[in-house]
Amino acid sequence: MKQNKLWALLAFLIFTSSQVTAQTTKNPVDYVNPYIGNISHLLVPTYPTVHLPNSMLRVYPERENYTSNQLNGLPLVVTSHRGSSAFNLSPYQGSIAAIKNVIPLSYDNEVIKPYYYSTDLDEIDVKVEYAPSHQSGIYNLQFASTQQPFLILNTRRGELIKTDKSISGFQQLDNKTKVYIYLETDVKPQLIGSHKGDKLETDVNTTKGNNVYYVMQFPANTKSIKLRYGISFISVAQAEKNLRREIKNYNLDAVAKQGKDIWNQTLGKIKVSGKDENAKTVFYTSLYRTYERMISISEDGKYYSAYDGEIHNDGGRNFYTDDWIWDTYRATHPLRTIIEPKMENDMIHSYITMTEQMPKAWMPNFPEVTGDSRRMNSNHAVAMVADAQAKGLKDFNLQQAYTVSKAAITEKTLAPWSSKPAGVLDQFYKDKGYFPSLAPGEKETVPEVHSWERRQPIAVSLGTVYDEWCLSKIATAIGEKDEAAYFLERSKNYRKVFNQATKFFHPKDTLGQFWPNFDYRFPPGVGARDAYSENTGYVYRFDVPHNVADLVELIGGKKDFVNALEDMFNKPLGRSRYDFYHTYPDHSGNVGQFSMGNEPAMHVPYLYNYAGEPWRTQKRVRTLLDQWFRNDLMGIPGDEDGGGLTSFVVFSQIGFYPVTPGLPMYVIGSPVFEKSILDIGNGRTFTVSAINYSPENKFIQSAKLNGKVWSKSWFTHEELMKGGILELTMGKNPNKNWGAGNDAIPPSFKMD
């Protein structure tokens, strides 16, 4: 009898335990916290974007910051990363005379998920729910008040057309590009019109201009209004087709569930496990961020291109745009080569296609819905191509990619933020191998140079020699041996601006003179733009990703290189914080002179591996993740840039990082999870497994790759894509011998 009771108790405990486990099991999207980073450290916050992966339709609350007290209406579509909503929707109850184009809305009880949004508009007693599809969305508005409800649809600059049951129209964007909308409700409006005084005027079916709007008036005592809409860059008719294709009724829950399933399938391409739930939240939120851009703008096999103002057939593959390649070539694109190779192929194909449509065949570097905005410095789309080619992606025209990438580097000016042809500074770069600075007191006279962005001579020189190295890799692949040798030799020209006396990269004028009395923390120009770009000389000291081995020797060998890295992390700001950040508003997430909040620094913590001290990389990466990427409102240290920063988190939490896009290899860091399983396609997986796992155990004691003892602090892309398992035995204290030998150091310049 006692034995039976014991078995019954055991069965009850097992059942209870399984029920608790079932109740607490989370899917990947359940970990996503879009609020992470919504309060910025200095510049632009990270917005809580509601969208499906890489989809044309994106929205977020129309407010300046998380701390804002009001919403500026409800959003309908964001047409560019960090941009404003192109249209606004304002629910309203009250006097017609008080209506305007956008109603400020007090809000509370907000809930945001990647696939769903809800909030209470507390002053007017309206509950809002929203769910997106790829090119359409649906709102459910519930009115608690008995007052007559109104909806106001505005366009900032454009035209609206009404019928008795719908509103459609467009908003004009920065150039010839228009975004179109078709919108309808489940409750037929009593009236649709504009208003003067306390009456709606319904006799005019079209309104156009700046901040024009229509008001939809509904029957008194209407408690619920469901609103669905489609968007398009082609036409109103296409916007309606997009809506009809995607949202066939007014079932918001079904749209949200479909979105949730899509996100789970997408984020599930990487499965992580371990005790640290906050780490999982940071990881899956970071992975979700990498899917905000680029966006597919294909609509039923067609797309509108701002690059020639025409509508094109997409040839059966998605056409993508909206990418800031200066931010994303480092880790966002390399991440896609692993888990989204088809998408990455299509994105590169889209870049090449854009170039075909442009007046000058120069590879874009900031392609947006409205065209290429030519921002920042260098032309790093070539790195995206070189990396994809090196890692086996082939579904794009490599010869054409080489031709237009070379043109962007050799025919367009290298001057930052400029789309002008090459000029005298570019000829100087070609002849002398470096982009010259002004001399002290010299006035700028070169027309290609942007008055605010300045020359950025070291940033341009270092960025372009890396781009030329990428060109050499592609030239080799297409059999252009002479050009490959030419660009390979040019890729060593970083040496020409390396100051042997100080061991820093140092701006040099046209006479070959280094700038005298130069302060590497505070060179001239806001954001150091007369020398660098957004970062101090300490960050740019390590910006030779294609030849780290040579940089180690230039600085003085392994010991001096490690000391230089440590000096960067230890060096104080040098001025008060308000003075430093007045000069360097982008240089956030500081650890000494290191900037975790800006992309040029992301590879730097991994450079200890190249000096035979990977234990320092393990310590530094884990510390940076803990300090700057957290599950809270300020948990992103800088401008996130649509995956630019968070791709660093994805790689680093898994346990490796692509230091050199264009070399098919990864540098090992320190895994945060007990297991990370990457779906690499065709039923294969690659697993990073932490033996002796604990969140505190950040140091690698030993390693095995597919059962073979592994002493290298890196591995190849080929080894990753074969599938298998990288086992890293972890401990609380460093094993300074692992990965320390000369044969363990990651390759530079070339793999053989």
TL;DR?
This protein is an alpha+beta fold and 752 residues long. The chain has 19 helices and 36 strands.
Can you describe this structure?
The chain is of the alpha+beta class and 752 residues long. The chain has two domains: 55-264, Beta-galactosidase, Chain A, domain 5 (Distorted Sandwich), CATH 2.70.98; 276-744, Glycosyltransferase, CATH 1.50.10. It is 29% helix and 23% strand. It has 19 helices and 36 strands. Strands 4, 5, 7, 8, 9, 10, 11, 12, 13, 14, 15, 16 and 17 form a 13-stranded antiparallel sheet that branches. It has a six-stranded mixed sheet with strand order 18-31-32-36-33-34. A hairpin with a 2-residue loop joins strand 23 and strand 24 (371-372). Helix 7 (341-357) crosses helix 8. The longest helix has 23 residues, at 2-24. The N and C termini lie far apart (73 Å). The model is unreliable at 1-23 (pLDDT under 50).
Number of distinct beta strands: 36
Q: What is the terminal separation in angstroms?
A: 73 Å
Class computed from helices, strands and strand pairing: alpha+beta
Just give the CATH class of the largest domain: Mainly Alpha
What is the CATH architecture term of the largest domain? Alpha/alpha barrel
Low-confidence stretches: 1-23
Please, what is the average pLDDT? 95
According to CATH, the fold-level topology of the largest domain is Glycosyltransferase
* Helix residue percentage: 25-40%
Question: Strand content of the residues, in percent?
Answer: 15-25%
Largest beta sheet, briefly?
13 strands, antiparallel
